[in-house]
Every structure is written in structure tokens, then in C-alpha cells.
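Quick one, C-alpha cells below:
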């Protein structure tokens, strides 16, 4: 576990990191390039330190986890789940992974195997939720069940708190508005309602070409 916490992420445009184990130098290669040029901003924008820590621990424990949102576009939900997978490096999620679960496939929530899923649109009713499934609502910051028995070691919470604090400005209203319209801004989809408000020069919406 010490290696897990001390292992650095690969440098930009690189997929290998090196560490010393005793008298040997060990090279770890990320062949999928999952961690390269990856932004954790969407992940920390919608989860508190407590929720992010709980989510991370549940994922490490290979539990059944669902990220749900009625307000965020499916594309952004996928980005958030991919950021979570990148956060697991050098480990890798080997179980069922469905970043967007179609409404007609809600029965998949009853799968006996661990899974990581995203649900967009209609909310998940507690009645259709098995007892061993945990849902993180990205719109409200709440979970189902509301009270979870998850022990988060400080060795996990502290680095995640630093990550979260490094992106505190994501909680500003202007940034919240940016993420809410992610599909229109980043994917070029036209607005379908009313007159669009003029973005502030200080807002990410006013700097779309420079947003990273």
C-alpha cells in the first residue's frame, strides 16, 4: 500500500514512472495512457472531500458504485467516471464498467458482481436499489443510502483534500454554470432554450478556447 500512495503520476505526454524498491529500480508502464493529460476538475467540482474520499475507498474495495445526475449531460458524467478511474493509478478497475447506463438496463443494478456505473436523467428510486449498491448524487452531494459505514483512513483523505483544495474555485457560480452546459460549450451543441446569457470575461464560458 505504501507504493500505491507514494507512486507519482506519469509526466505529461509520458506513460511510465520509476520508483525505487529496496535496491532495485522498478518501472511501471501505463499502456492505455489513462492517466495522461487528464483533468480531475470535473471530479472535484461536484464532490466534497468527504464524498470524494468515500467514493475512492468504495472503489478500492471493489464495491457496487453508481454516480447519478439529472442535471449534468451524459458526456460530462463519462468524463467524471474516467477521472475516477485515472485516480486509481497504478491500480485498475477490472470489473463491470458502464459510464452511461441506459434506462432500459436498470436491471443491471442487481448484478451480483462489483460495478462502476453512471446514471443520467431519471433518478434512481430507493425501492429499485439493492442494499449493497451505493449511489452518489452529483446534483445534491447526497448518497443512497444516506448513512454509509465507510472508514476513510487519513492517508487517503489527506491527499484527496489537497487535490480538492487545489480546485476550490470550481465551486464558484460561474464555474458551476460552465459544467452545467458542458455539452454546449465543449462539444459544440447548440442551446435549445431561450436567449443565452452573455458570459462574463472571468467565466470559463467566456474562455472556452483556453479551457483545459
Amino acid at each position: 500500500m505504501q507504493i500505491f500512495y507514494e507512486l507519482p503520476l506519469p509526466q505529461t505526454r509520458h506513460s511510465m514512472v520509476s520508483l525505487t524498491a529496496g535496491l532495485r529500480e522498478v518501472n511501471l508502464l501505463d499502456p492505455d495512457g489513462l492517466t495522461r493529460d487528464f483533468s480531475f476538475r470535473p471530479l472535484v467540482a461536484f464532490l466534497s472531500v468527504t464524498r470524494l474520499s468515500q467514493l475512492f475507498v468504495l472503489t478500492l474495495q471493489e464495491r457496487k458504485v453508481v454516480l447519478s445526475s439529472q442535471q449534468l449531460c451524459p458526456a460530462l458524467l463519462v468524463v467524471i467516471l474516467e477521472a475516477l478511474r485515472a485516480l486509481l493509478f497504478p491500480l485498475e478497475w477490472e470489473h463491470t464498467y458502464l459510464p452511461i447506463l441506459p434506462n432500459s438496463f436498470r436491471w443491471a443494478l442487481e448484478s451480483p458482481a462489483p460495478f462502476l456505473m453512471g446514471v443520467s436523467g431519471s433518478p434512481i428510486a430507493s425501492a429499485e436499489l439493492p442494499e449493497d449498491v451505493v449511489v452518489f448524487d452529483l446534483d445534491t452531494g447526497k448518497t443512497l443510502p444516506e448513512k454509509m459505514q465507510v472508514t476513510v483512513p487519513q492517508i487517503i483523505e489527506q491527499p484527496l483534500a489537497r487535490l480538492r483544495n487545489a480546485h476550490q474555485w470550481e465551486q464558484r457560480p460561474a464555474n458551476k454554470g460552465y459544467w452545467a452546459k458542458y455539452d454546449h460549450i465543449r462539444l459544440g451543441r447548440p442551446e435549445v432554450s431561450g436567449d443565452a446569457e452573455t458570459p462574463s470575461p472571468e467565466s470559463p464560458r467566456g474562455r472556452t478556447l483556453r479551457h483545459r
